[in-house]
Every structure is written in structure tokens, then in C-alpha cells.
Amino acid sequence: MRRFHLSPLAAAICSLVVIAASPCAAQTAAPVDLRILAINDFHGYLRPPPGGIRITDPADATKKIMVAAGGAERMATAVKKLREGHNNNIFVAAGDLIGASPFLSAMFHDEPTIESLSMMGLAISSVGNHEFDEGKDELLRMQNGGCHPVDNCQGPHPFTGAKFRYLAASTIDKATGKTVFPPYEIKTFDGIPVAFIGLTLKNTPNLVSPAGVATLEFRDEAETVNALVPELKARGVEAIVVLIHEGGFPSGDYNECPGISGPIVDIVKKFDKAVDVVISGHTHQAYVCEIDGRLVTSGDKYGTLVTAIDLQLDPKTHDVISAKADNTIVRIGSYGRDPEQSALLESYDRLAAPIANRPAGAVTETLSRTPNDSGESPLGDIVADAQLAATSSEPNGGAVIAFTNPGGVRTDIVKRDEGAVTYADIFASQPFRNQLVTMTLTGQQLKDVLEQQWADPKRPRPLQVSKGFAYAWDAAKPDGARIITERMSLDGRPIDPKASYRVTVNNYLAEGGDGFTVFKDGAAQQFGAYDVDALYAFFKANSPVGPMAAGRIARIN
């Protein structure tokens, strides 16, 4: 950040002038204040997420507590209050506003979320990887409006598209060589232009269905931003804010930044020094940092936080003088419901409730998606078992093993009241509506695909496995050699590298998603039910459902 200083001589001269001449007026003009409100990773959580946000206990720094927070109704109220007293303000986002959404939004292909954020006055958002969950054309529909090409118009009123502008500086349409959305937008505050550059992470093709982004290229984040700086300067812009859907991992509380690590650190260090502020996301973390002399923020997930960033702009140089930020918790007890938001949600609820409230069964205790040290989670076990049950009969595929990716298991199935579980609860944990695919793999291919769990060493992706299948891995071994061949078994019998096995995965994995390219070579593919329907059927048949005994995955060292 650059700081504006008035020299002593200039100040003395100006103090003698009774009627300020224009040079003195220019030097003594007060800085222009700008408040930027930011969110990231909203993921269609129109209602408050279960559990809220986890923060350090103010009464005991050694403990953590959960604070009820989030939801569109309260977030809209928080945004309004945070705007008060700030004539210059703008509301922006750093991607993943939609995708992996709870039932109320996902049932209508996230149209309610787009409408909700538009009503709040969101102005700009970068594109996250989850914006591409249903492919480029569907994201363009989110921007421009219109009916869904398959499900048609299902909402209570016509969908007219986002009132805010998506930005995608690093996402290139291979056919045209142009960005899918504009790379940046310039807003002017009291005559000072401020540029907002929006971009998603380079790794997007490995995080979404490959078929949905096959026609797109995702370029390097820092190189993209740096190439735009001369163009922005030529347009008179000195203040630059980057909205990037990539993030880091701090060790402190929601307004701190000790030990920040992760991709965002290296990216920010590579940015041109002209970049003043970086608003990040993707990792679902909350932090306020200084990295390489720049303010870097992130606002948790699911609308539990709104980041208030206060900038001072130099009226002469048009650059940023100072920047500070505060992550404000959208506490359920502190903010009332916004009437407009309530009316919007109720209009969709009337259509969704009959389906959402269908009984699915019950749980004996909360099924957590959090993995243990070996990589196995209670809910991951259940999801894999459900997918095996849906495809084990010969007509449905003849599967003997099922795998599911941890990123596809989105939220815990929480025990409430008497443990009753609804279709909406099931949907929240499996919101992508991926189709199950059963294929034939050899025992050697099973080992090869399990080795791919560490394809990205910074972010291992432990596959969740169905009952009967077990394996062990050695954390001390190098990439490609972690799976212990003799510890791979099915129903207690060793996996034969040359034998063939029928294996079920979702279509995201079948297309090589999350870097599991071995699945693309699976033979005799047979498509079946949707993952959410398989889990719903499992609950109907097996309730009450409780955690299985862990031990399908064993870790050595």
C-alpha cells in the first residue's frame, strides 16, 4: 500500500493562503473513504447452516465454541447495517456463491440464491469452481436468465438472471480466445476509479466434471492479474482489488492470521505491487492477513461472515493510502430477518416443502463427514454403502465395491430432536445429484486409483469405501507407493491384481474428477440411480442409521 504524505513546506505554504488555490486544495483534500463488503463460498445456504461458525471462546482462548450464524435473511440485514454511514460502498464476492447447495436452492438450480444476492445489492463476484458444476452454459444462464434447458421453469416467477456481474479474468473460451466473462470492472467513487479483477483458481478442471469445462482454459492466476495491470493503469486506475477464488489455511481465529499457508500465499507474492487488496475464498476459512504488504481476507463459508474492508483513497494519486478489515459474524441473535428475503424464501418454500419434508428415516447420532487420521469418515462410509446397495444386483450393475469422493459429501447429517431425517437433510449431504456409474476395474487398477488420492500433495483426497473392502496405506512411503498391496482385500480375501471387479462411483469420478483418471479407463460402464436417491433409499431401508465401526482404511506411520 502506498501512503499519502503532505510535505512540511507545502503544508506551511497552504496554511498562509486565505482562499485555497487549486494546488493547495489538491494537496490538502481529505482522503476518500471506501467500504467494501465481501463474502465467499455462500454455496446457496439461504437458511443458516447447521452449527453456524466455529470460533475461539472469548472467555477461554484454549477452547472453541459454535456460534449460530448465517442465512440470507440475516445476511441481508447485516449488509444493510454495515453500509450505514459509508457513502462510498460496494458489495462483492469471491466465488462459489452457488453449487453444492442445500435443497431449497439446488432444487431450483440455484436460481433462488442468485435472486437473493441480487436483492442484497451484490455488485460483482469472481467465478468459483462450483459455479461450473453444471457447466459453462448453465453458468451463463445464471448471469443472463431464462429457463433451465431440461427442467424448464420451476420457480414461482420467471428467472431473469443475476443483477450482479460475474468476472472471470483467467477463464478462456478455447474457441474464441476470449474470457467467458469480463476480466474486471472499474467502479468510480468520488471521482477515483477502483478496479476489481475477478478470477477462479487454475485447478478448476480437476475440481468439477471435466465434460462441463472441456471447452475452457484456466490460466495462471498471478500471470493473468499482472498482465492486466498495464491496461488498468492506462485507464487511469491505481487502486486495484483482486477477487480470487483461491485461499489459505491460517491457525488463528476468524479475524487473525498466524501461520497462514496454502496456495494464496505464493499467488499474492507473485502479484504485481500495483495490487492493493486481495479478497479470497475456496478454502472455507476465515482470516484477515497481511501478505507481502497487501491486505488479504477471507470470510469463512455459508454466509456466516461478512468482511468489512475500509480503504482510504488518495484524491491526488488515486491510489490506496490505507486498508483495514473486520470479519463480522452474521449472528442469528444480532440481526433480524430482512422482510424481502423472507418473502423470497417463502415463495420457493411453498413449492419445495412437500418434497423437502418427506421422511427419509432416522439417525442414532450425528453422521459426521470429518475424516479420521486414516481418511475414513462415518458419513463417507454410509454414502459408499448406499451406492453399493443401489448397484449390487446384477440388473443394476453387479457392483462389489463402491467409492465416493470426500468433496461430494458436503455436510453432516445432524441428529435433531428424536433423530428424524428428511429428504432435505439427505440432499444437503449429497447436493450434486451425480449419477452412479458401475464399471469393471482390475485389481491393479484399484491399487492405481487409490494411489491417486495423493495426486495433489497439498490436498489429499481420501476416497470413501464401501463395506467389505479394506486397504492400508503407508504415510512414510513416496507418491505412487503408499498402498500396501497385500493389505487390499474384499470380504477378507486379498485383491488379485489380475482379477476383474465391478466398481461403482459417481459420474464425476467416472470422468476423472478430482484427478482420479484411472476411473476413465473403467470397462463396461453402466449408468444407474442418482447418488442422493441411493442415499434416500438406504435410509428408508435401514433406519435408524448410525456410524459403522471404522477400519475400512488403515494408516501405517
What does this structure look like?
By secondary structure, the chain is an alpha/beta fold. The protein has 14 helices and 27 strands. The strands form seven sheets. It has a six-stranded mixed β-sheet, with helices on one face. Strands 8-9-11-12-14-13 form a six-stranded mixed β-sheet, covered by helices on one side. It is globular. The N terminus is likely disordered.
The outline comes out as globular
Number of domains: 3
Oligomer: single chain
β content, as a range?
25-35%
Strand line-up of the largest beta sheet: 6-5-4-1-15-16
Distance between the termini: 46 Å
CATH-level-2 architecture of the largest domain: 4-Layer Sandwich
Q: Return the CATH topology of the largest domain.
A: Purple Acid Phosphatase, chain A, domain 2
**CATH class label of the largest domain:** Alpha Beta
- Structural class label: alpha/beta
| Number of DSSP-assigned strands | 27
What are the defining features of this structure?
557 residues; alpha/beta; Purple Acid Phosphatase, chain A, domain 2; 5'-nucleotidase,  domain 2; 3 domains; six-stranded mixed beta sheet; globular; disordered N terminus
Describe the structure concisely for a colleague.
The protein is an alpha/beta fold and 557 residues long.
